[in-house]
Write a structure and sequence with these properties.
Distance between the termini: 66 Å
Mean pLDDT: 91
Order of helices and strands: HHHHHHHHHH
Shape: elongated
Strand content: under 5%
Low-confidence stretches: none
Largest sheet: none
Length: 194
């Protein structure tokens, strides 16, 4: 059995990656740069993360944990109304995506989710399950999973297009609130049920 000479290195590497993605975006996440920022040799991360995808997955996992914490707080504050909870969850999702563009991009990289490292795909499922549950309460006649997936895809599109500046140009809007309200109406129907 080999004893790890620096058991805190794993956490420090992920911390450095989280800081790097926040400062410079997902494209800056190289093993060499993360090692440099951690103050270790460029080969040292391999002791804890045998592949680059594993290190990126650990960093992305932090993003999912942060988003889950924010959503949990938001839902606790939103009150018992399912529609109000979906609206609050959706707004929190968009704010997170726009305020943490590099992390958001990393979290939804297909190669990371597909790789299965650290069960990354599974870390996003509880949030989607909650959205599906709330959608089912609002639209009991519909396939809640399908409606929730379409709403999530719409939110993802709003986040991406807003970040690129495309929606501002197309809609003339200076914030995403009206677009969010329209997406909620399209997927959940009118608030009064008519």
């Amino acid at each position: 059995m080999t004893i790890d000479p620096d058991p805190g290195l794993r956490t420090r590497l992920v911390d450095a990656g989280v800081a790097l993605v926040a400062a410079e975006g997902a494209q800056a996440l190289t093993l060499r740069e993360i090692a440099r920022r951690t103050g270790v040799s460029h080969g040292a991360p391999r002791r804890h993360f045998p592949t680059h995808l594993e290190l990126l997955s650990a960093i992305a996992r932090r993003g999912f944990a942060d988003l889950a914490d924010r959503v949990r707080t938001t839902l606790d504050e939103a009150g018992p109304d399912p529609r109000g909870q979906v609206a609050a969850l959706a707004r929190t999702y968009l704010v997170f995506a726009l305020d943490n563009a590099g992390m958001y991009e990393l979290m939804f990289r297909h190669d990371l989710l597909e790789s299965g490292h650290l069960g990354l795909r599974d870390t996003s499922l509880p949030l989607f399950a909650r959205l599906t549950e709330l959608t089912g309460l609002i639209r009991p006649e519909a396939d809640a999973r399908r409606v929730a997936a379409a709403l999530w895809a719409n939110l993802h599109g709003i986040a991406q297009l807003w970040r690129w500046g495309s929606l501002q140009l197309a809609s003339g809007a200076d914030d995403f609130t009206a677009l969010l309200d329209t997406a909620l109406l399209a997927h959940l129907g009118p608030e009064d049920g008519r």
